[in-house]
Amino acid sequence: KFRMPTAENLVPIRLDIEVDGQRYKDAFTWNPSDPDSEVVMFARRTVKDLKLAPGFIPQIVQSIQSQLADFRSYEGQDMYAGDKIVPIKLDLRVNHTVIRDQFLWDLNNFESDPEEFSRTLCKDLGIEDPEVGPAIAYAIREQLYEIAIQNVTSARENRISKKGRRGAEHFPPSKAGGAALDLIKLFSFRSSVVRKRKEWGYYKPTLDLLSNEDVDALETKEERSGR
């Protein structure tokens, strides 16, 4: 049944709200089992702590509740089952730190912990900014959520296909599912799990530290793109 393929079943929430010329952007995870009253309390605390206009409270509440409702709408539904190893890609800028990486994630490991993974990655790369780790964990969870939704769609398509054509055994895989199946073929008994030398660079994390001028230029560009 549908759930995040991680130890903690957390929903990635993304906010981008503008009220009276003020803009609030944030990304975090939320436990879908928490009562809805927690959403209102969170919105009030956030507005108070960040000194935002009171008009942000209903907007924050509505956005979080809407995203939680989307997540809960998938609960109880079947997911496409099978050996799934999918690629996860990172391309993030957090303050002065830019990190790019890609790695494989086992969707059948429901004990996996993106937060622990991100802490280990930051430690190995010597990243000191405390905001980078949570951003990496969030990026992983956001991609896993999208893949989980696609797996629900694949399972639904499979049921429809079997109803329409007796004896049907195959169905069009989703984009994520196709990538996973390609990887399964790649790691079949005919192939080695050791990557070819020419592929090493693709799976090597890259880390860049930006100057203040670089950050200002990027933020100006992002602000113009967001208008």
From TrEMBL:
Cross-referenced PANTHER family, in alphabetical order?
A: SNF5
Q: Does the keyword Transmembrane apply?
A: no
Listed name of the protein? Bushy growth protein
Which organism is this entry from?
Theobroma cacao
Q: Which UniProt keywords apply?
A: Nucleus, Transcription, Transcription regulation
Superkingdom assignment: Eukaryota
Choose any GO biological process term that the UniProt entry carries and state it: chromatin remodeling
Got a GO cellular component term for this one? nuclear chromosome
InterPro entries (alphabetical) = SNF5
User: Does this UniProt record's set of keywords contain Transcription regulation?
Assistant: yes
Q: Which family, according to UniProt? A: Belongs to the SNF5 family.
Q: Where in the cell is it found?
A: Nucleus
